[in-house]
Design goal:
By secondary structure, this protein is mainly α. It has 33 helices and 6 strands. Strands 1-3-4-5-2-6 form a 6-stranded mixed beta sheet, sandwiched between helices. β4, α25 and β5 form a beta-alpha-beta unit. It starts with a helix and ends with a helix. About 20% of the residues are buried. Pfam families: AAA.
Length: about 950
């Protein structure tokens, strides 16, 4: 992509940004309302507008090479993404659920659900240093893959069929089956093509004997030598029906002319020249050419004619193919234009080749970013060096002249010199800002000091008591104001409970800091870049005027403390001379002490945890974690590989029918994507930890691998099987090592498979030897509590039996919980279609609707495993004769030993109960639904009484 294309796209992005800000201004003009449905529509519509804007800003940030403009776009992208997440969180708080539905806003804006799906940001993955990247790449081959404690996980069942182990008695020969199939297909096509041409030749000789057997000519080919050459390695065209040649096509003394399909070997086209006009009045004697020309000249003329004939034939062949090519192009052009007019083709739609070329161009442009960054840093350093060399002495002279003028002004008006500002206060910058005392203020201060010395002890005591009383009155007033504010908040909460919450769009609850940052950034950009033509700057060089101004200010700040130290001595000399003139005793100025900053909330400094591995290198720690199987590799998966559909009827059920519809599996993808936005280079919020809940085979391990792959994270495995060999006394050291390496190798993901085992209510007898709860006792204190919000470290847990754990400790360690929904009709149909589409021989007309209805509730791993096991190699070979039926797939579940059944409602209810206890929003929603049911019951009771 060219720079002009990116500039045009950035201009379009600015127009979209202005449109969104205009809509924000209109929203702030709305009157406060208590209608929750109206507020939900407003916020969801704002969210739908921000999603495409964030995509456009992400792409601009990804493709912009000019460093100064990229910095502006980065700030806008960060603020816009943060605003989008805030609006999404607001919708979740209003619906009291992680699963939100905004179909009303989509209908209003004429969008589809795919238009507001969160996409993988362009700033993924976060770049590491070359040293750490090389360390990870060097050890990637020796790492063990992540394993799930459940053998029915989706990640294991979606693989291809396992091959039998090789026989040690036979050498292993790797066959390129794709190449073999291609060669066999080409040989078959060649054999049939040769047979087709032979049949056409036979047909010509049989149907057109007159054309094939004309009058003989003298120069005809008499005997054409033909020999059969057999090559031992030549592929035999078998099985092919052989053509029987029962005629003599090497006909002697026959002139072969005008062959419609086939021309035999050795045939030469005869050129018939026009006879010259005969002169009747003066007849000339006819002399044969043979008698006039010798034999050598006749042979030469025949060869020339043959060459000319060959050239003419070649020219005609080229013209014929060129005309055919032009005609095909014309027909394709007409067909395309007709389809565009009829609306069958979108001219802006990208084809597969165009997509690939655009992605390649974007990747090549992205690789040039470090080159522009280095050039910008070099330009900054060179400019600073130039300013220091050429303008440094003049800057120091200007600073000293300004301070000396301050000395003179102060002496002329106050006949004294003010205290020289300390460096920690800001130095003589305070003089420029006007934050020092004026001569009049200085004289007033000196007068008050003189009067203070004349006061008696009783007067001083009374004034001290008065000041003390004034302070006490101020404290009482502050306490009263705080109590009034608390009382006001209490009244507002009681009013909200009675009448409902009032939503004011002008409050910071809606007009957040992210929105203000967007407004300020775009206003500053329009002011700074107003006179810069972005379309003409093809080289995308930095703007040196801004660099010069910044470096001037920086050099000025660096040189001012040096000048201050010199002029501080001058001030002392002037003060000494003034004291000598006034015949006063000179007292050197005492430096003012810097005020101590408050340390923490209660003035206590937080103690940093000691580094237990300070004497060890990063390589040794990394190798030790690999040896203990803590650092693992993972399969390259994507979050979009998690197959599932959306619940399209949930919006009406939740907002109009006041029901609580079940979520669908497709919504899990969007939720996890939004949780990962903070794992990139932009400073966006993210959870410290979350836990995936669901039955076995629902793809929890696959999602963990997808999270690692999307963020290019290093995976630390802290499952029970990994931690079991570590003694209890060494666990704190192990946690310290893991946290230290996780910070060094950011982004990192810490995975705990079957996390409920760390918080068992009662340890099963089979697992007592592993002591699974020893890690759960120190997990929060040693790991989760020490992870900072801005660190790219994420703790991910999975659980298939969460009800066996203590809810309090489990909830304390994981910030968010996500329950994977049961498979419904839409998700099951997508799973069957995905599984069957990989098998050759299954048509698209296979009826999946009844099969999807019957298999609702089956785990994705069960469905994919059913297809892989049912359609084995032998069964796929018989598909042409015996087509696949839905009954055959259902029989697989019933004929297994033991039979496979979907998860029952009673078993899944255990997950729902735990989810409502552990997740904050689910807990609040359950409470709200109980209140709503109680109100409906009361209303029905009143109506029943009235009827009686």
């Amino acid at each position: 992509m060219t720079q002009k294309t990116i500039a045009k796209f950035w201009i379009a992005t600015q127009a979209e940004l202005q449109d969104v800000l205009l809509h924000e201004h209109l929203v702030q003009r709305f009157e406060p309302t208590k209608d929750k449905q109206i507020v939900h529509e407003i916020v969801s519509e704002l969210y739908c507008r921000y999603v495409p804007l964030c995509r456009m800003l992400d792409r601009c940030y990804d493709q912009t090479l000019q460093v100064q403009k990229r910095e502006v776009i980065q700030g806008l992208a960060q603020a816009a993404n943060q605003r989008m997440l805030e609006l999404q969180q607001k919708v979740k708080q209003m619906e009291l659920s992680e699963f939100t539905y905004i179909d009303g806003a989509l209908r209003e804006l004429h969008l589809i659900p795919e238009d507001v799906q969160p996409m993988r940001p362009c700033y993924f993955p976060l770049e590491r240093s070359a040293e750490h990247g090389g360390l990870i790449a060097a050890s990637s081959k020796i790492l063990q893959p992540l394993t799930s404690s459940s053998s029915e996980e989706l990640s294991s069942s979606s693989e291809s069929e396992e091959e039998p182990p090789p026989d040690p008695r036979r050498p292993i020969v790797r066959r390129d089956r794709v190449k073999e199939k291609r060669i066999a297909a080409l040989n078959l096509i060649l054999a049939h093509e040769k047979a087709r041409r032979a049949r056409i030749m036979q047909l010509n000789f049989r149907l057109h004997p007159k054309l094939f057997y004309p009058k003989p000519r003298e120069d005809a080919i008499q005997d054409f030598p033909y020999e059969f050459y057999h090559k031992p390695d030549q592929f035999m065209l078998i099985p092919v029906k052989r053509t029987v040649y029962n005629w003599d096509y090497y006909v002697k003394k026959k002139d072969v002319v005008a062959f419609p399909y086939y021309k035999p070997p050795g045939w030469v086209e005869q050129i018939v020249e026009p006879e010259p006009a005969k002169d009747i009045e003066n007849p000339q004697p006819v002399v044969s050419e043979v008698e006039e020309k010798p034999e050598e000249e006749e042979e030469d003329s025949t060869e020339e004619k043959i060459e000319k004939m060959i050239r003419n034939r070649s020219a005609r062949k080229i013209q014929r193919y060129w005309w055919k090519y032009q005609e095909r192009k014309r027909l394709l052009r007409e067909r395309y234009n007709r389809s565009v007019v009829l609306g069958m083709i979108d001219e802006m739609e990208r084809g597969p080749n165009l997509n690939a070329r655009i992605e390649q161009a974007e990747a090549e442009r992205r690789k040039r970013k470090p080159e522009f960054d280095e050039a910008f840093l070099k330009a900054v350093e060179d400019e600073k060096t130039r300013i220091l060399q050429q303008r440094g002495p003049w800057i120091m002279e200007d600073i000293s002249d300004h301070i000396r003028a301050w000395f003179r002004e102060f002496y002329d008006r106050a006949h004294a010199f003010d205290r020289y500002p300390e460096i920690w206060e800001g130095g003589t910058i305070l003089v420029i800002k006007g934050e020092t005392l004026t001569p009049e203020e200085y004289m007033e201060v000196q007068r008050k000091k003189a009067l203070e010395k004349l006061k008696s002890a009783e007067q001083k005591k009374k004034e001290a008591e008065a000041r003390k009383k004034a302070k006490e009155l101020e404290k009482e007033k502050k306490k009263e104001a705080k109590e009034k504010l608390k009382e006001q908040r209490r009244e507002e909460k009681e009013l909200e409970k009675r009448e409902g919450k009032t939503y004011d769009f002008k409050k910071p609850e809606f007009a957040t800091n992210a929105y203000i940052t967007i407004e300020e950034s775009i206003a500053r950009y329009e002011k700074d870049w107003y006179f810069i033509d972005e379309l003409d700057s093809e080289e995308e060089l930095p703007i040196m005027e801004w660099i010069t101004l910044d470096k001037f200010a920086e050099v000025h700040q660096e040189l001012r403390p040096i000048v201050d130290e010199v002029l501080r001595g001058e001030r002392e000399l002037l003060q000494k001379a003034l004291c000598k003139d006034n015949k006063k005793k000179y007292k050197p100025a005492k430096p003012k002490k810097e005020k101590r900053k408050r340390k923490g909330k209660k003035g206590k400094k937080k103690k940093e945890a000691p580094d237990l591995t300070a004497d060890r290198t990063i390589d040794s720690l990394y190798e030790e974690l690999i040896e203990k199987n803590v650092i693992r590799t993972y399969k390259k998966r994507r979050i979009d590989d998690f197959i599932g559909d959306y619940n399209y009827a949930a919006y009406e059920k939740r907002n109009f029918l006041l029901e609580d519809p079940p979520a669908a599996m497709g919504e899990v993808r969007d939720i996890i994507k939004t949780w990962l936005f903070g794992m990139g280079s932009l400073g966006l919020p993210k959870p410290k930890s979350f836990c995936l809940l669901g039955p076995s085979g629902y793809g929890k391990t696959m999602l963990v691998e997808a999270v690692c792959n999307e963020t290019d994270a290093v995976l630390f495995d802290l499952s029970v099987a990994t931690v079991a060999p570590i003694p209890v006394a060494e666990i704190p050291l192990m946690m310290h090592m893991i946290l230290k390496m996780a910070r060094i190798l950011q982004p990192t993901v810490i995975c705990i498979d079957e996390a409920h085992k760390l918080f068992y209510k009662k340890i099963p007898p089979d697992e007592k030897s592993l002591d699974p709860t020893k890690l759960g006792k120190v997990l929060f204190k040693r790991l989760i509590k020490q992870i900072k919000k801005d660190e790219k470290i994420l703790l991910v847990g999975t659980s298939s039996q969460p009800w066996t754990a203590k809810v309090g400790k489990f909830k304390k360690c994981f910030e968010k919980f996500l329950l994977i929904p049961k498979t419904d009709y839409g998700s099951t149909q997508l799973l069957w279609r995905h599984a069957l589409s990989k098998k050759v021989g299954i048509g698209k007309d296979f009826d999946l609707s009844p099969l999807s209805l019957v298999t609702r509730g089956y785990a994705p791993a069960q469905i994919l495993g059913c297809v892989n096991q049912t359609l084995g190699l032998r069964r796929r070979m018989r598909l042409a004769r015996v087509p696949l039926t839905a009954h055959e797939l259902l029989e697989h579940f019933l004929t297994k030993n033991p039979p496979e059944y979907p998860i029952t409602d009673k078993e899944y209810l255990k997950f729902i109960k735990f989810y409502k206890k552990a997740d904050k929003l689910a807990k609040q929603r359950a409470k709200m639904l109980k209140i709503r049911e109680a109100e409906i019951a009361k209303q029905k009771a009143k109506e029943a009484k009235k009827k009686k």
